[in-house]
Design a protein that fits this description.
Order of helices and strands: HH
Helix content: 55-70%
Structural class: mainly alpha
Length: 76
């Protein structure tokens, strides 16, 4: 199942390449197009970090997978 952060990971290089290519085709010099493409991908990252920030589910208590044996045993 894909979620918001899966789309963000796909959008980062997509926006960088897409904006850079579109601006280059419109006549903007490559260095300027790369700068604006990197800025657009930075906006995507900033949105994922600060607008829809990842939160820990308080109900589960831990993100670690369940263990098959108690933590104090040596299962070697």
């Amino acid at each position: 199942m894909t979620g918001y952060y899966d789309y963000v990971l796909a959008l980062i290089p997509g926006v960088l390449v897409g904006v850079t290519a579109a601006l280059s085709l419109l006549g903007v010099p490559l260095r300027g197009a790369l700068f604006l493409g990197a800025g657009a991908s930075t906006v995507v990252v900033a949105h994922a970090l600060f607008v829809r920030s990842p939160v820990v589910d308080e109900r589960s208590g831990s993100d670690a997978p369940p263990r098959s044996e108690p933590p104090g045993t040596n299962a070697d």
